[in-house]
Amino acid sequence: MSTRRDRFVGCLTGVVVGECLGARLDGLDAGPISHRFPTEESFAELEPASYGPASEMTLAVATSLIESKGLDLDAMTEEMGRVVSDGSAYGATTTRALSEQQFAGADEPVSSPLRERGRESYGNGAAARTAPIGLVYCDDAEELREVAESAAGITHKHVLGMEGAVVQATAVALALLGGGRRVSGERFLAALHAETRAREFRSRLEGAADLLTRKTVSREKLVARLGNNKTALGSVVTAIYCFARHTDSFEKAVVLAASLGGNSATLASMTGAVAGAYLGATAIPGRWREALADGEITAAKLTELGLALAECEPGSAA
Prior knowledge:
Layout: H1 4-22, H2 30-36, H3 53-68, H4 73-84, H5 92-102, H6 125-128, H7 131-136, H8 141-152, H9 159-178, H10 185-195, H11 199-212, H12 219-226, H13 236-245, H14 250-258, H15 264-279, H16 286-290, H17 299-310
């Protein structure tokens, strides 16, 4: 049985491992992937690629929460801007929003209200980095929502972009709190549905629950029903469904997400966050954790950050 601290580490590690695996199939269609990998077992030899924006931004959010002992929008913006300025490939919305705030003049300070932050984007960038917020604010659903919306608004202030971040953070929180107990996918989706406010996401969760009642669901049908694209609405619930389908196996959940193609790197990363928060780092295959030997985001670094995040005692949302 995993400990709470192990699940914090598992969540962050799941984000990175998931993105690295999904990156191998990113941009492909589900049909050709099904032809190449007809069974779950056929994915056994899939080697992780390099981590990318989802991992780097998630760690920036985690670092900011740890150093600020909770949400500090200015500090989080600065930390995220530091990552983007390193030259990594980020979406235009994130890059532009952070650049505008970093170089804001005296009449447009970085500490401007939420309505002045971000851009009208409904992409999944904010949802992809929100896992640490779900961990730290797991005990208070209202504060979690407030913090997740505010943090999302740094770069994504469209209602669907922000709600996607809230739904993903809530899924991580529910997974963390449910860890150590057997929770069915059906009950998990029902609990998440009860915490979701946007009609569009509630409808997607209902679709996911319907698919969960079926013994088998083709990848093509899953993509057609829930999506595999870069929008929050077309990816967040898909990623959560993959976990709900395989609550007892980190490997199966993440492989399913990666196998959907499209924006599979982010899909698998978000699935990995929820599965890791529920099952813990010890449930992540050793061969995948060992593959994180190169670059700045190593397994040791993720353990260090996860344990520090577990000790974070946030104050009121800024």
